[in-house]
Amino acid sequence: PEKGLKDYYKNYFPIGVAVNPRMVQPGPDAELIKTHFNSMTPENAMKMGPIHPEENRYNWKDADAIADFAQQNNIKLRGHTLCWHNQTPRWFFTDSTGKTVSREVLLARLKRHISDVVGRYKGKIYAWDVVNEAVPDAGPDLYRKSKFYEIIGEDYIEKAFEFAHEADPAAQLFYNDYNTENPSKRDRIYQLVKKLKDKGVPINGVGLQAHWSIYEPSAQELEASILKFASLGLKLQFTEVDMSVYPKEHERRDHRDTDKSEFTPEMDEKQAAQYKMVFDLFRKHRDKITGVTFWNLSDRSSWLDNFPVPGRKDYPLLFDQNGRPKKAFDRVVQF
Ligand code: XIL
Predict the structure, then answer these.
(1) Going by C-beta distance under 8 Å and a sequence separation of 6 or more, which residues neighbour residue 257?
(2) What is the mean pLDDT of the chain?
(3) Which of the ends of the chain has fewer CB neighbours closer than 10 A, N or C?
(4) Residue 222 and residue 235: Cα distance in Å, rounded?
(5) In Gene Ontology terms, what is one molecular function of this protein (predicted)?
(6) How far is the CA of 296 from the centre of ligand 1 (A)?
(7) CB of 305 sitting under 6 A from ligand 1
(8) Residue 132 in contact with ligand 1 by CB distance below 6 A
(9) Which ipTM score applies to this complex?
(10) Which residues contact 262 (CB under 8 A, 6 or more apart)?
(11) Widest Cα–Cα separation across the chain
(12) How big is the CA angle at 276 (ends 275 and 278), to the nearest 5 degrees?
């Protein structure tokens, strides 16, 4: 059989991919997953909105299809995500008259949600992103002013971890966030996680999303993150790796040049070099890294298509629009 990414990396760490329920139906996507990946994360299917659309109704179908595929094919499964300010239904925060609920009610809802979802996949999901993106991008604050924070207070985070731990004491519990190479945000995530750890909150790891571009981060910035987060003594995973061919919004200098939506030979080359740089560092720090997951399967479809710029296609992954390995793939497996 064809040698897959996971085979090249079998002595390093599991290689994962974010999937939607269509991809696990028989077909080329499912084959690509089976060849290259030994870990999966549901891209959306286990988020609050999709899985718990109404207070007394769960939609298990899509999440179950993904969990079944993982089990049948001996692929590890990460759960994503139990508590996030996005993709959370309005009902969560309001009562039947539309009034915002109290701290007690919201905590009870969070507890029920987490015990039901974690409980259902107990033994099938080895790691959960318990709280996602709780730290603001800029400013001095540790806590994003989300509804969870406003209604419950800062202890919503430790409560979420406690609820998850009660529901599956064997699952590894992660705090997950992005922009972790930004020095200010990196420090504030570090402080938040350190506080949790020092308090005895059942947290096992930090997930660094890694929504990067062919222009950033630099090797120095990335290595600084790896060393800083590893110093917490927790597990470290790269949970949502992709490499946009466009500069991130805040450093886009020339919109005209970057909005053509073509994958140029220059982008191909620059992306291969950037992927090589980050995987060289991942391998160098294999003793600290317990998983690397790509956010989507191939350039045929990525969450970065039309985001953040409507009408713009992106090419952030190792496989092209036909599922064939790109130059970046070759660089990642040549070592
Ligand atoms: C994204 C999905 O890929 C999209 O399909 C969805 O519309 C929005 O969310 N950080 C996360 C992921 O933790 O859950 C997000 O996934 C991407 C950014």
Answers:
(1) none
(2) 96
(3) N
(4) 16
(5) endo-1,4-beta-xylanase activity
(6) 10
(7) no
(8) yes
(9) 0.99
(10) none
(11) 61
(12) 65
For residue 183, how far is its CA from the centre of ligand 1 (angstroms)? 23
Kindly state the tokens that stand for 121: 């996949």
The alpha carbon of 302 and the centre of ligand 1 are apart by a number of angstroms equal to 10
Is the pLDDT at 251 greater than 90, yes or no? no
**Is residue 266 classed exposed, middle or buried when 0-12, 13-18 and 19+ CB atoms within 10 A define those classes?**
exposed
Question: What integer is the mean pLDDT of 260-284?
Answer: 95
Angle at 139 between CA 136 and CA 143, to 5 degrees: 40
Would the CB of 244 count as within 6 Å of ligand 1? no
From the CA of 239, give the closest atom in ligand 1: 13
Amino acid found at 264: T
Among this protein's residues, is 240 annotated catalytic? yes
Verify whether residue 249 is a known catalytic residue: no
Ligand 1 atom nearest residue 133's Cα: 13
- 235: which strand partners? 205
Three-class SS state of 91: helix
- What are the b/e assignments for 229-240, b being 16+ CB within 10 Å? bbebebbbbbbb
Q: What is the pLDDT of residues 284-316, one digit of tens each?
A: 999 999 999 999 999 999 999 999 888 899 999
**298 touches ligand 1 (CB under 6 Å):** no
- 193: CB partners within 8 A, 6+ apart: 175, 203, 206, 229, 232, 234
3-state secondary structure of 7: helix
DSSP 323: S
pLDDT, tens only, 143-181 = 999 999 999 999 999 999 999 999 999 999 999 999 999
**pLDDT confidence bin for 260, thresholds 50/70/90:** low
CA 124 to chain centre: 18
Tokens of 203: 């947290």
Q: Which residue has the tokens 């995973």?
A: 237
| Best CA proximity match to 77, nearest among 111, 117, 27 | 117
Ligand 1 touching residue 177 (CB < 6 A) = no
